[in-house]
């Protein structure tokens, strides 16, 4: 569906991780949906959000270990997996954490 060019709202747009900017944007969007779902007691939607992030994290880890992935891309995917682990451990902390992480990295 993403290839159609039609806008897809979260949580159905999934986690994009071609770049760090895409990853950050989609994790922040997913956080908003997750927070709203949790606040309204919609546990199924909140679980769906978490499953999307878990799936993306697993994909990043797979690519980080793949011998067909360049060493630069492996390092990026390891870092991206770390971002998603932080989101999964404490989604509300993620925005401040990623801002601090970007400051330290630059």
Q: Which range best describes the helical content: under 10%, 10-25%, 25-40%, 40-55%, 55-70% or over 70%?
A: 55-70%
Q: Report the average pLDDT across residues.
A: 90
Strand content range: under 5%
End-to-end C-alpha gap: 35 Å
User: What is the makeup of the main sheet?
Assistant: none
Protein architecture, described:
With 106 residues, this protein is mainly alpha-helical. The chain has one domain. It is 70% helix and 0% strand. 25% of the residues are buried. The mean pLDDT is 90.
Tag the structure with descriptive keywords.
single chain, 106 residues, mainly alpha, 4 helices
Could you write a compact summary of the structure shown?
By secondary structure, this protein is mainly α. The protein has helices at residues 20-39, 43-65, 71-89, 94-105.
Topology:
Elements: H1 20-39, H2 43-65, H3 71-89, H4 94-105
Helix pairs in contact: 1-2, 1-3, 2-3
């Amino acid at each position: 569906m993403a290839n159609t060019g039609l806008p897809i709202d979260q949580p159905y747009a999934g986690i994009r991780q071609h770049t760090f900017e895409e990853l950050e944007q989609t994790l922040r969007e997913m956080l908003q949906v997750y927070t709203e779902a949790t606040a309204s007691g919609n546990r199924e939607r909140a679980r769906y959000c978490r499953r999307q992030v878990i799936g993306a994290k697993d994909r990043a880890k797979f690519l980080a270990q793949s011998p067909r992935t360049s060493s630069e891309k492996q390092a990026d995917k390891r870092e991206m997996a770390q971002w998603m682990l932080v989101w999964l451990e404490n989604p509300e902390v993620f925005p401040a954490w990623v801002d601090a992480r970007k400051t330290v990295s630059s």
